[in-house]
Write a structure and sequence with these properties.
Blueprint (H helix, E strand, L loop, with lengths): L4 E3 L2 E4 L4 E6 L4 H4 L1 E7 L6 E6 L5 E3 L1 H4 L3 E6 L4 E6 L8 E8 L13 E2 L3 E6 L1
Parallel strand pairs: 2-11
Antiparallel strand pairs: 1-3, 3-8, 4-5, 4-9, 5-6, 7-8, 9-10, 9-11
């Protein structure tokens, strides 16, 4: 099972930016579909964005509306989530996850490997 390690979270003010990183074992990002989810206190885990092994991307448009960008570096086996124009409602623990291709992209159950999460807090 892939071991995923997120980093880059922190405390920022509304309107600022952050870039999250997810380091994965070699070749994981090249062969698996990767995604970012987030979970706020008292809420269910929410799909944020995904990038397929081919590089195609999917977003939770309602939640991120063009503010977030997912990308990957196959050579570094790392996935990134660039977050701009952050809002207080973006406050959550952000998780990186990996899934075998062919599974539903937005469903948490599709993802068999998860990181420990990184906290993002956006103050008003």
């Amino acid at each position: 099972q892939a071991q995923l390690v997120e980093s880059g979270g922190g405390l920022v003010q509304a309107g600022e930016s952050l870039r999250l990183s997810c380091a994965a074992p070699p070749r994981t990002v090249m062969w698996y579909n990767m995604a970012w989810f987030r979970q706020a206190p008292g809420k269910e885990r929410e799909f944020v964005a995904a990038i397929a092994r081919t590089g195609s991307t999917t977003y939770n448009v309602d939640a991120v509306k063009g503010r977030f960008t997912i990308s990957k570096d196959d050579r570094k086996s790392t996935v990134y989530l660039q977050m701009a124009s952050l809002k207080p409602e973006d406050t959550a623990v952000y998780y990186c996850a990996a899934a075998e291709p062919g599974n539903p992209t937005r469903a948490p159950a599709s993802y068999k490997a998860w990181g420990q999460g990184t906290q993002v807090t956006v103050s008003a």
